[in-house]
Amino acid sequence: MKAGSNESSKKLVSGWALAVWLLLPLVVLVVLKTDCLPQVTVRQLFAQFSFTQPAGDGSVNKVPSSGTENATQQEAVGVARLKAAHDPVVGAPPPTALSNETAAGGADANGDLKNQTELLAMNGERDGFGVNSDVAAPRSRLSCNFSFYRMNICTMEGDVRTHGKAGTVYVVSASDDSYRPENGTVTIRPYPRKWEKPTMQLAREVTIRSSGPGAADTAPPRCTVTHDVPAVVFSTGGYSSNFFHAVTDIVIPLYNTAREYDGRVQLVVTDYSRKWIAKYRHVLAALSAYPVIDFDADNDVRCFPKVHVGIESHKELGINPVLSHRGYTLMDFRDFLRSAYSLKRAWSTPVNRTTGGRPRLVMLLRRHSRALTNEAEAVAAAAEVGFEVVAAGPEAVRDMAHFAEVVNSCDVMVGVHGAGLTNMVFLPHNGTAMQIIPWGEMKWPCWSIFGETVPDMGLRYVEYEATAEETTLKDVYPRDHPVFTNPVSIHKQGFDQLWKIFLDGQNVTLDINRFRGFMQQIYQDVTVT
Ligand SMILES: *[C@@H]1O[C@H](CO)[C@@H](O)[C@H](O)[C@H]1NC(C)=O
Ligand SMILES: *[C@@H]1O[C@H](CO)[C@@H](O)[C@H](O)[C@H]1NC(C)=O
Ligand SMILES: *[C@@H]1O[C@H](CO)[C@@H](O)[C@H](O)[C@H]1NC(C)=O
Ligand SMILES: *[C@@H]1O[C@H](CO)[C@@H](O)[C@H](O)[C@H]1NC(C)=O
Ligand SMILES: *[C@@H]1O[C@H](CO)[C@@H](O)[C@H](O)[C@H]1NC(C)=O
Ligand SMILES: *[C@@H]1O[C@H](CO)[C@@H](O)[C@H](O)[C@H]1NC(C)=O
Ligand SMILES: *[C@@H]1O[C@H](CO)[C@@H](O)[C@H](O)[C@H]1NC(C)=O
Ligand SMILES: *[C@@H]1O[C@H](CO)[C@@H](O)[C@H](O)[C@H]1NC(C)=O
């Protein structure tokens, strides 16, 4: 197929982009198997356009920035996941092909348990079940849904016991209407990236064993610890070391699942990463009043009145209020984060130019790839236009809480496509996020990852697509090379080529006049006279 008109080549782009993204898991698998790259690199390379920033190389031109030059948190810079990944039309097999929503006894055989909302509503009526006895009277309910595209999830209540070391959750004496003998044992990898098989291998499998009324078949172990709050079991495996993935795969889904308990919930982590737990401690402490339990190392048998295995993910870096049974929005999530990190500014309000106010702009500066070769000029141009600029290189990234404050103190964030842009979650409402898209027909995938979600965040989105004149690829390839004449043909060669050339293989030299124009426009939009 040849790209003809502009229009048909656009279509082709999308087609290929989709195809490429859909192939990602395979590519990851191959690389994992060959074991020729460290995990992080594999993730960076293939599962997303992500990569982890190496330490700063010292060549940064820091800009005086009102004492916040420590700035950044681009750490796991990288990113990218594609729309294909979450758009059921392109990515998801038809739900019926995936499974059987009643498979684990989720829906009621008698038809009186229509959905999870209803199940949860019943919670209050289910008091009074002893958790320590092995009595046979039905007293538990089990509701699983294996039909979601992004995750498998089970909610159990009544007499539920966990034995972390064994990786097992026991549902004792499930009621008739929620129990299927043939599904007495189900397994879940509690990481919401189900469509990426290789990623899922990085998350431990949790086994849920349920017994029916009167059944002694599972012989559940006796409780050694009894909790009076629900538990949420999730994994910090997967791609969690990447900032974009940490937020999209864990932090948001955890919020969706655990927030409603208002702190009275026990978080239980499989594939426990001490580093991850430390890094996201603010979020974890805001969600739960209790220290996190390391599931894999836990030899106690813990009894809970209710347990969720798996966390609820709706889309990349977003929340679908319709799917959220509490009707949460991404704005709510951002308010939650603001509170978790004690951030001061809820809103970015227009700055009065007449009184000499300067709106603040944080510029994310990457190293190694997709770096701005003329970042000093770019920073100067933004400052000249009237912004107070915070230049945020990867070197000061370590302290996430600190960088959250820096971002929150700003009205505008600017950065080349990469995980660092995930920091936009900390911008005040009505803030502006500008994504610089590298050369190579990358507009659509980049938009899918960061642009699409921006309005739901209550932010304004600005896109700056680098031209052929603005990429360092022009120092490497002649202008009649397909890299310039037909970037889509590079996409077609597979994701590794795309990565190598367009994501890992270029820096951006901004056309400063053009860039200044964008800065002026944004400045107009965030100021008044
Ligand atoms: C920058 O970070 C260092 C080390 O974390 C800290 O001591 C210093 O106070 C920070 N500077 C600013 C301006 O926040
Ligand atoms: C759903 O489960 C029932 C029994 O629980 C089984 O008969 C049916 O084949 C399953 N359907 C699918 C699509 O797996
Ligand atoms: C539930 O049981 C049915 C019938 O035995 C089986 O086809 C299905 O795969 C099971 N589902 C799960 C999630 O184990
Ligand atoms: C689920 O059940 C509740 C309570 O009966 C009802 O209000 C709600 O509309 C139902 N939701 C769906 C998606 O069916
Ligand atoms: C399970 O998930 C599917 C797909 O989102 C949804 O259509 C279905 O209603 C859910 N089933 C239950 C029992 O909640
Ligand atoms: C946020 O932006 C909207 C649209 O530009 C504007 O109407 C609203 O007044 C702004 N809110 C605040 C608090 O500045
Ligand atoms: C901006 O400040 C000037 C001078 O103090 C004042 O006259 C003007 O009303 C202010 N504009 C707005 C929109 O508040
Ligand atoms: C991009 O710039 C960095 C220095 O900031 C350099 O180390 C790297 O090799 C450059 N990459 C490309 C593809 O030009």
UniProtKB/TrEMBL annotation:
Chief location: Golgi
InterPro entries linked: Glyco_transf_61_cat, Glycosyltransferase_61
Pathway involvement of the protein, from the record: Glycan metabolism
Listed name of the protein: Glycosyltransferase 61 catalytic domain-containing protein
Keywords: Glycoprotein, Glycosyltransferase, Golgi apparatus, Membrane, Transferase, Transmembrane, Transmembrane helix
Keyword hit for Magnesium: no
GO molecular function: pentosyltransferase activity
Domain Glycosyltransferase 61 catalytic: 321-430
Membrane topology: Single-pass type II membrane protein
GO CC annotations on file: Golgi membrane
